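Issue: ligand-bound run for zinc ion - logging full I/O for the record.

Environment: standard queue, default settings, no custom constraints.

Inputs:
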Amino acid sequence: MEQLTTLWQYQEQDLYMDKLNRQRKSLPLRNKLIKLRDIIYEQQSLLHKLNEDLEKKRHIFNELNLEYEKLVKNLKADHEKLYSGDIKSVKQLEQLQKNAQEYKEKVMAREERLIKLDEEIEKLGVELMNIRAKAAKARKEYKELKSAYDAEMDIIKTSMANVKKQKLDLESKLDADLLKKYKSLRKDKKIVVAELVGDKCSGCNMSLPSIVAKQVKEGKQVVECENCGRILFIKKDG
Ligand SMILES: [Zn+2]
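Outputs:
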């Protein structure tokens, strides 16, 4: 039966398409790309966080520095007053000295905090630079892998386009009802057209009555396996 031979070829294209689809989903580069993409995302969020930390610390540093400068200015002004000869009383002198001492302590405390903050800012800066370098490397690697992946994918896509074309070509030769039957069976079976080998359906391995083999050989009608419902087919040699 000519139609069955065509259907058999059609099924072969379908099976090849399944294989291409599996290949497409399991390209080794695909997993590598996904892993690398995750790493890049992680680095990006870390960079974001560190940048925020750095900005915060810089802000605190600037505020502290302003306070520090103001304190130093006050301290100087008091000093000037102290030596200006304008001091009228011992009490006033004592007050000024007390103020100066307080300013000094505050200045020193802020100085200490500023130095510590400065160190932290520098450390953060180094960390940021390292991560930026790593991120740039990862992005470069990703770009290279991606183009290799795209090239592999292009080959598969070309094959898929070929299969589609072949299928369309075969479809035009197939009887509409037979094609419809095939398509509906294929919804839950990978192999729809099963070879009859001896008296066995190769789809389900059941032995079938000899009359079935005879009918299939005659090729006057589409014969289905009475056990699994597959369309039976005998391959002609050569
Ligand atoms: Zn069967």
